[in-house]
Design brief:
Length: 122
């Protein structure tokens, strides 16, 4: 019985993974956060798989779990922030040096034969 439960869930999860990640991205998550959210939703579905699999629309359950988890996480992050009177000093994020260096390396690579470029890049 447990093997049927696990194999049925595994088939569902692998078949719906990309749709769940895509839905999480559309909910406003980055790709990495979307994968985490989809994984969390699938974990919650696995815990209740007998009931979820018997539902008319198992996808609706997963989407609802994703929305609830996302809103709970956003609320949780908000409560962990504390207002301060003064902002801490922020370092200046000057990316000019990185751009100049990248341009110099790219220019130098272009002067080499293709095989040497490949060796250096690898």
């Amino acid at each position: 019985m447990r093997d049927d439960h696990d194999s049925d869930f595994a088939a569902y999860a692998s078949g719906r993974w990309s749709a769940l990640v895509r839905a999480a991205v559309l909910l406003g998550c980055s790709h990495q956060d979307a994968e985490d959210l989809a994984q969390t939703a699938l974990l919650k579905a696995w815990k209740n798989w007998k009931r979820v699999s018997q539902a008319a629309e198992p996808d609706a359950y997963l989407y609802r779990v994703m929305v609830n988890t996302l809103s709970t996480d956003k609320r949780r992050r908000w409560h962990s922030e504390h207002a301060t009177e003064y902002l801490p000093d922020q370092p200046v994020n000057d990316r000019t040096a990185n751009v100049v260096l990248r341009d110099a390396v790219t220019t130098a690579l272009r002067t080499l034969p293709r095989e040497q470029q490949q060796v250096l890049v690898l």
